[in-house]
Amino acid sequence: MAQAVATLETAHGGGESHIGGADHSGHPPTSTGLDSRKIAMWAFLASDCMFFGSLIAMYMIYRGEAERLYQAGQGIGPLPHEILDIPYTSISAFVLLMSSLTMVLALASIQKGNVRGLRIWLGATALLGAVFLGGQFFEFTEFKHEGLGLTTNIFGSSFFTLTGFHGAHVTIGVIWLMSLLIMSLRGGVRKDQALNVEIAGLYWHFVDIVWIVIFTLVYLIPYDEISTITHEAEGALRQIGLG
Amino acid sequence: MASIAQPQVMAQPITKPATGLWSWLTTVDHKRIGIMYGVTAFLFLLLGGVEALIIRTQLARPNLDVVSAARYNELFTMHGTTMIFLALMPMSVAFFNYVMPLQIGARDVAFPRLNAYSYWIFLGGGIILNLSWFFHAAPNAGWYGYAPLTSTSWNPGRNVDFWLIGLQVLGVASMLAAFNMIVTVINMRAPGMTMMRMPIFSWTTLIVSILLVMAFPAITAALILLAFDRYAGTGFYEYAAGGDPLLWQHLFWVFGHPEVYILVLPAFGIVSEIIPVFSRKPLFGYSVMVYATCAIAFLGFGVWAHHMFTVGMGPTANAVFAGSTMLIAIPTGVKIFNWLGTMVKGSLRFTTAMLFAVGLVSQFVIGGLSGVMHASPPVDSQQNDTYFIIAHFHYVLFGGTVFGLMAGTYFWFPKITGRLLDERLGKWNFWMAFVGFNATFFPMHFVGLAGMPRRYFTYSEDSGWGPWNLFITIGAFVLATSFLVFIINVVKTLRNGEVASDDPWDAATIEWATSSPPPVYNFASIPEITHRDQLWWDKYGDHGAGSGVERKAPAPKEQVDPSSIHLPNPSYFPLVSAFGFFILALGMLIDNPVLTIGLLHLPILVPIGGLIMVVAIYAWAFEPAG
Ligand code: HEM
Ligand SMILES: [Cu+2]
Question: What is the average pLDDT across B140-160?
Fold first, then answer.
């Protein structure tokens, strides 16, 4: 990741779609020396942080709420601890993490001018992403069978919304990687256009990191007895009138 | 499709601007896009103004029924939503677009086609919001859309859907524009234009854009949850389902408070350009001004719950948010002193632009003071939800933002059109606005403290609020007339106004170094920046702006042959893609056949619009940008 981020020397990649980076067409160089699209991507990721931050805050506020209602005899299951399959999701999380590695390899390949390597690793990354998505699709249908839908209870609502939006991000990433792969197969992505790959990589790594956070908060921290973390969080939430 | 765009690469004549409707529909020129933003936003401002006048007519006397209670709800909701999202924000974006690239010596923004795309999406969002009137479903739950007013059980019609989808579309437009502005300021500055030599208005463009991209996601998420509640039947904001209506308020104000700075900082940037020019003195405390702007933006994320003092958060949270809110008044006050310090011992010229700028300084102070008053929770428990709050935010939004935008209009109009707005009409415009504004909003402090609640469609005879309300309504019509004067001024000026020189105000920043209006390519040769207030340096050197001593004419720069300047090609894909987005959004709102794919039930217009949108984006990605 750090490597993907820190490769500044590719700043003048082929930027057809903007006037702030490429110099092949006589545009002035940029003020920072960085390609404009890369700065735009960083700004987008900062913004997307706030988006996931909001959804994650929502999830954490409602975490444990379904149990509470159930125990009070006012809500229905399925409840998180009955339904979340940690080993299964650990595997798909591992798959997604590995895709970050292949992404790094894809970028490293094209920076060395290795077009074949780029294609292989791009394909691998897209494939791993697709496997993750397949896993999520299977997980969702499985939950559906066990009676948990978007509107079943507040757990279902917040769970499907949070993980669903993450899945949507992965989907966009896979489409993006596939587009790059197709462009490459048609002779498009040359060494001097490694930046195209780098920017896709930034996005891809970000989506991965978000999953680590979601995986921890949604799956790993236990629900059954309201844990210390949620307990303290509850106190804080009550301070601002929630929970 | 790409083949259509291909010949234009060569054929595009860049020395003369293209004319005709098609050239505007396909333009990617930041100046034209700025003008389109400005004109559209002004039309929406008039619409929002008419809504306000109807509201004021209804409230002129006790127990009137000019409009029904339900219609009244729609009117105040659409008034607020229109003014904030369709008038003031896009008018600021108009100035970002037109002025900032010129100020930093760029030929265009970083992503010209994305810029056009932002505009077209914004237009679509504005149309969607206002289409609601024709479907008898105008939004009616306030511009803040509090749960559970927005829930299907209380609000079963399409009203709230129009609001939430419209805002979602506008959010996309704002964010795309903001990414563009951020990158442009960071990356497109002329050689020598360091950050601390950059004109303050370009600084505020950057800071406001950062605020935008950091604050909008919160409302995006909040609106998505609301959409799920309304379209899919979840219960995120339903207490009975385990949800919590207060979550909406938190998410909304996490966005909403930064939003008020998004609205006012551009105006601050504008007057920070105008006051030095008409005081013939550099801005007093430039770097402090920059830091104060950054501080406001930063602190602005930590004060949101001052909108929620009365919901029962508990003493700790109330105290913390009261403290942070009072803290934010400090950098705001610093700015006021910067402006005052600039004027002290300056040789002041009270042009209309300057009058509006000084108007902002004085009126904003009043709004800031009332803000600090209800920053105290006990005080706020009396003022919350009364007309006192209405008075507060109109002093900051009208006395602040609108005055600032008017100042900017009078200031840059000659640069944009090549003609100077009439100063005599301008003074009428200002003084009528000033008097009308204060007559409208100052008495609201009194009726507010006397207990008159906001959002009610009428009041009783024996409340005693009748006389002031009549006065307020008269004030509102005076205020409205001032805009009429403005329109007359603009029309007259465009017909036969005084022709402006390149630098009619003897200004400080380099947008005045190029012709009025500027050529398509902005500057024949990109200026080299060696100083803050570069143009003053070019004109007066060490003697300083007020000295009147001209520097020896600097060596003429080598002129670049304009036909060798490379400019981005026009493109219709932004318009096509935005149209797709519009159709997609409309599909969520009007009756159209439902398509079922597996678990998904989609109104047919949604995938059709989505397809148009995506295909156009792909086509645009592969079209030569020039
Ligand atoms: C000195 C700085 C400011 C302070 C201390 C302050 C404080 C406050 C507080 C405490 C409220 C909530 C009152 C209530 O609902 O009971 C409020 C409302 C509001 N403020 Fe300010 N404010 C300041 C500046 C601004 C600025 C610069 C703007 C906009 C340009 C602004 C716009 C608003 C708006 C729109 C509302 C009402 C929102 C609504 O309920 O619809 N304020 N302000
Ligand atoms: Cu606020």
Answer: 96
Average predicted confidence (pLDDT) for chain A: 85
Residue B18 has pLDDT above 70, yes or no: yes
Q: B141 and B66 in one domain?
A: yes
Range of the domain at B573: 569-626
**Is residue B557 over pLDDT 90?**
no
Neighbours of B614 (CB within 10 A): 15
Contact assignment for A47 to B214 by CB distance below 8 Å: yes
A120 shares contact with chain B (CB less than 8 Å): no
Tell me, yes or no, whether B168 and B262 share the same domain.
yes
Which of A48, A157, A240 faces B234 most closely, judged by CB atoms? A157
- What are residue B386's phi and psi, to 5 degrees? -115, 175
Pairing verdict, β B498-499 and B594-597? unpaired
Determine, for residues B107 and A19 on separate chains, whether the beta-carbon distance falls below 8 Å: yes
Domain contains B554 = no
What gap in Å lies between CA B320 and CA B316, rounded to an integer? 6
How does pLDDT run across B412-427, given as a tens digit for each residue?
A: 999 999 999 999 999 9
Number of domains in chain B: 2
Mutate: best of B6, B100, B186, B565, partner A, most A CBs <10 A: B186
A171 reaches B (C-beta below 8 A)? no
pLDDT in tens, B60-100: 999 999 999 999 999 999 999 999 999 999 999 999 999 99
Q: How far apart are CA B388 and CA B40, in angstroms?
A: 31
A40·B228 Cβ contact <8 A: no
What is the CATH superfamily name and number for domain A36-238? Cytochrome c oxidase, subunit III, four-helix bundle (1.20.120.80)
Which residues hold their Cβ within 5 A of ligand 2, which is an ion? B 257
Question: Are both B51 and B173 inside the same structural domain?
Answer: yes
**Measuring CA to CA, which residue among B289, B258, B212, B265 is closest to residue B92?**
B265
Indicate whether B4 belongs to any domain. Answer: no
